[in-house]
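Re: [ENG-882] Designed sequences occasionally contain unexpected residues at chain ends

Forwarding the minimal case from QA. Structure tokens:
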């Protein structure tokens, strides 16, 4: 079976997925879509595909098995629900939206259609995370810290919180999702943030830095910090975990280091987690088996809820129960 794929959103992350898909001999990219016609046309020419500037005619005119939706979080309309109604399997880049009500509507449409869905939480497909989860089995974890501190992305929509959700939602959601994978569901979040370092930037209204305290239903306590103001400083992205018998450092998509009293051991990433994520989705589409995916939409919705709750805490100054 050759999986006929459409691409909605032909920017950087869309092309990142395309670079994986074009290596698969059982995938054919037949349609591309972007509000910028030039980007859709350029990508379409590579594959002899048809270019569109709206997903509506693409869904109506093309016979698609699957679609990769790679658009800014605030740009989602009926992009997913229209695909679901037509039985088109869906891969959505994170964050899936900035609105929890919309996310629930999409999740319901996916469930009703019985299609395969996936969200781009690529850390779940890392070999070093597989090994870390095995290591943590049966161990008691009290605390962890996480950090996504670096520079500001250059795309203009990122700096507008209504369009991106801010750094917690748009970038650091990777760490929140990983924390859920490792430690279970979050009960409460309490957040604080600051501004004033990033000045003179047009249409910039996101926080420069933030800190979010998370309490988990199993008693684990975590703190995740974000910052987008680094220039010459070296970024820090990852999680540090404190067990009874080890301190574990996860360096984002690079390595895991295990520290104990008598031993320091490092494991380096050996696979392309992005390729593994996309390959798993295509295999699930071919098998019509949603359970093969490690980040289905309904589960990813829970990670989105944590970050939306963190933003709510920033606005109210109060702890927020995660729903």
């Amino acid at each position: 079976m050759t999986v006929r794929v459409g691409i909605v959103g032909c920017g950087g992350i869309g092309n990142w997925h395309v670079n994986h898909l074009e290596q698969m001999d059982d995938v054919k990219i037949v349609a591309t879509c972007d509000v910028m016609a030039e980007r859709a046309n350029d990508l379409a020419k590579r594959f002899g595909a048809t270019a569109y500037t709206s997903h509506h005619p693409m869904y109506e005119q093309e016979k698609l098995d699957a679609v990769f939706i790679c658009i800014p979080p605030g740009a989602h309309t009926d992009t997913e629900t229209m695909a679901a109604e037509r039985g088109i399997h869906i891969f959505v880049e994170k964050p899936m939206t900035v609105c929890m009500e919309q996310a629930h509507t999409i999740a319901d449409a996916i469930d009703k259609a019985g299609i395969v869905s996936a969200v781009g939480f690529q850390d779940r497909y890392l070999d070093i995370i597989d090994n870390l989860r095995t290591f943590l089995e049966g161990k008691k974890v009290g605390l962890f810290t996480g950090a996504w501190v670096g520079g500001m992305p250059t795309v203009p929509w990122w700096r507008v919180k209504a369009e991106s959700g801010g750094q917690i939602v748009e970038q650091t959601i990777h760490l929140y999702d990983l924390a859920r994978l490792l430690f279970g569901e979050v009960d409460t979040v309490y957040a604080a943030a600051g501004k004033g370092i990033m000045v003179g930037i047009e249409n910039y209204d996101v926080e420069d830095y933030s800190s979010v305290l998370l309490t988990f239903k199993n008693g684990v306590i975590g703190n995740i910090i974000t910052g987008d103001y680094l220039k010459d400083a070296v970024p820090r992205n990852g999680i540090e975990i404190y067990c009874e018998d080890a301190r574990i450092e996860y360096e984002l998509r690079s390595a895991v280091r295990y520290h104990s009293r008598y031993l320091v051991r490092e494991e380096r990433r050996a696979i392309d987690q992005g390729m593994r994520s996309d390959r798993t989705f295509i295999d699930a589409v071919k098998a019509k088996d949603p359970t093969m995916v490690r980040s289905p939409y309904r589960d990813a919705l829970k990670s989105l809820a944590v970050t939306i709750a963190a933003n709510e805490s920033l606005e109210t100054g109060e702890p927020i129960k995660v729903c």
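QA comment: On inspection the terminal residues look reasonable. The mean pLDDT is 98. Proposing we downgrade this to a documentation issue.
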